[in-house]
Design a protein that fits this description.
single chain, alpha/beta, 5-stranded mixed β-sheet, elongated
Amino acid sequence: MGAVHGVHLKYVAMSVACGTGAWCMGDVVAPVGGVPPALLRCMLWYSMAVHLLIASLFIWRRGEWIIGKSPLTGQVPLWSLIVWAPFHAPTWLYTAVHTWIGKQNGVPVANEVAPGWWIGGRYGSELGRKWAATIDLTVEFNEGCFGDSTEYLLLPCWDGTPPAPDAIETAARLAARSSHRGDVMVHCAHGRGRSTCVMVACLVRAGVHNSWRAAFDAVKLRRKGVKLNSKMKRALDEWEGRFGSRGLDE
């Protein structure tokens, strides 16, 4: 939920924990905290199934649509919060706590990694800035910057997984064009992996750097904790091979 590597393992672990809890309650007959044991077992079995499904989709790098996040407004609908509550609740809680801990350790909600270019997490709206464009890589959170953005692009990705090269190019071109009108925000949940993957391509397309690797080296100097896993590096290599290390108008 916040790590760039092996994120799906957290959902596997939660699935195992929920299944184990349901199994161990097999002989319980008294209410637990006022909840009938049969209902609690059903809730645990359902949570196990949800976490197992989400972990599978992380591995397959598909199925983001099941969360129902709107590409027009960046909002997660109420039905999703109910149906997928076992996914949303720990994800939202973990991100809130992780962001708070980051602030205590000198990692703000977003950093300007080049003049006018910002990488952040889901709480980037706390900056209170206006954005020429916001590129949102999350599938799991409501978009806080939507109302302050002239352009908004949703590229929904499970945590720890990159967009496809075509989608990276779409984001990079939008960001490069918008950067002439104001600041650009690229964010994911924590401002570490997904956002970094797209931002380095944006900086190349805008002519700030000549390659994604050069852009990544520069970004690391401006924001603590940014990382790219092997899937992200392969996606960027493919993007660079297909679309080239060139500015927008070259």
